[in-house]
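Sequence design from tokenized structure. All designs in this work follow the same two-part layout: the structure record, then the generated sequence. An example of the structure record is given first.
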């Protein structure tokens, strides 16, 4: 065996080396083709005043490409998704170009793979790059609410109600977004009664409670960007609060005047002389001014609102023939509304925290409190007792206007609820 193994060993060694060389040559000359999907595209040398739709801050495009690669079999077979990326140099390119990817555009992310030596050809679907002017604009974001207020509270409003988000991107998309606007939705179900109780101040007018919106809630997704939700960048967003009104009955500490309105079309038959308001257990006259003589409470308005408007309220009754209405319509009216509104706004502004404010911010705050004042007037209700809204049954009776309040206790004075 030994003699056979070493017989003419020089020739055998030469044959083995020759076979290895031939095998290596053949192996490296065999080509293979492989399709790799989801290859990322990175753009370089983009002009500073341009951008591309779907481009991320790191220079990669949102869209990816499918490449068909042909090259040396042993190298091609090693390639996996994530091993390569495409780099497109768009310096001196037109605003809209069809770009071709060659092996010069490919970067190997696998240190053991040398694409430049072993890659023969690259084919791919058409890649169109469209550059647009880079535009930065402020996009209005409306704050919307969903869900229910915590027990014992009712929703008032949000400050600020509109946020301006600074957004940069392709000109056409940014302008469309600015025209459409965006919405930030806050869920009231995520706010608890305990949180509001803890936020309640200790002052005399503490039934308006502000809930500071957590930073995690103040995020918005820009439709044409792919980096996910981003934080609000408007400085006013730091002060974002959702305001609630604590539900409670507030005593009206004065009697409320009664005003009878006599429509002109019925004045020949129904007027102050033919149908005056009759004094009775529910109506008394103070210096010839009729007032409602039963203790009343207010609901759906704040303590400071009641304090400011309580001397400017009146009960308004419309006197019409019985043929039109058996029971006369009534409502609560507010006299000298612009003045009391200004008083309310001035009080609220003077009690704002945060030091000096710009005139623009003061103006926006004033508009905010004006809307709140008007909302109070619309929702305002009078109660006879904690479980009974005020009911006035007024009618024309024997050439007088008679007022009756069911279930009212005319002996009681104003008491705390």
């Amino acid at each position: 065996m030994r003699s056979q193994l070493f017989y003419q060993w020089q020739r055998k060694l030469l044959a083995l080396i020759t076979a290895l060389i031939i095998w290596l040559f053949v192996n490296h000359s065999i080509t293979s083709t492989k399709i790799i999907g989801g290859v990322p595209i990175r753009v370089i040398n983009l002009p500073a005043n341009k951008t591309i739709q779907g481009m991320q801050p790191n220079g990669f495009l949102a869209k990816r490409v499918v490449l068909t690669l042909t090259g040396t079999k042993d190298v091609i077979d090693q390639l996996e998704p994530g091993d390569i990326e495409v780099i497109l140099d768009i310096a001196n390119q037109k605003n809209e170009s069809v770009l071709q990817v060659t092996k010069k555009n490919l970067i190997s992310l696998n240190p053991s793979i040398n694409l430049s030596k072993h890659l023969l050809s690259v084919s791919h679907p058409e890649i169109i790059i469209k550059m647009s002017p880079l535009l930065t604009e402020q996009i209005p974001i409306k704050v919307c609410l969903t869900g229910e207020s915590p027990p014992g509270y009712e929703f008032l409003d949000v400050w600020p109600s509109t946020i301006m988000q600074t957004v940069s991107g392709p000109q056409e998309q940014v302008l469309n977004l600015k025209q459409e606007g965006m919405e930030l939705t806050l869920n009231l179900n995520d706010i608890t009664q305990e949180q509001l109780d803890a936020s309640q101040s200790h002052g005399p007018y503490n039934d308006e409670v502000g809930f500071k919106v957590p930073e995690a809630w103040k995020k918005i997704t820009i439709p044409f960007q792919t980096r996910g939700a981003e934080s609000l960048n408007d400085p006013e967003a730091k002060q974002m609060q959702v305001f609630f009104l604590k539900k409670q009955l507030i005593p009206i500490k004065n009697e409320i005047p009664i005003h009878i309105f006599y429509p002109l079309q019925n004045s020949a038959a129904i007027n102050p002389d033919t149908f005056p308001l009759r004094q009775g257990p529910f109506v008394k006259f103070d210096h010839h001014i009729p007032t409602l003589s039963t203790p009343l409470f207010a609901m759906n308005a704040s303590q400071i609102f009641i304090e400011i408007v309580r001397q400017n309220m009146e009960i308004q009754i419309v006197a019409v023939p019985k043929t039109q209405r058996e029971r006369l319509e009534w409502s609560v009216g507010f006299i000298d509304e612009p003045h009391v509104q200004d008083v309310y706004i001035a009080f609220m502004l003077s009690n704002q925290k945060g030091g000096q404010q710009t005139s623009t911010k003061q103006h926006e705050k004033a508009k905010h409190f004006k809307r709140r004042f008007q909302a109070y007037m619309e929702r305002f209700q009078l109660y006879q007792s904690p479980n009974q809204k005020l009911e006035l049954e007024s009618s024309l009776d024997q050439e007088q206007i008679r007022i009756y309040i069911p279930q009212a206790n005319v002996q009681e004075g104003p008491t705390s609820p």
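Residues 139 and 178 are 5 Å apart (CA to CA). We note this feature because it recurs in several other targets discussed in the main text.
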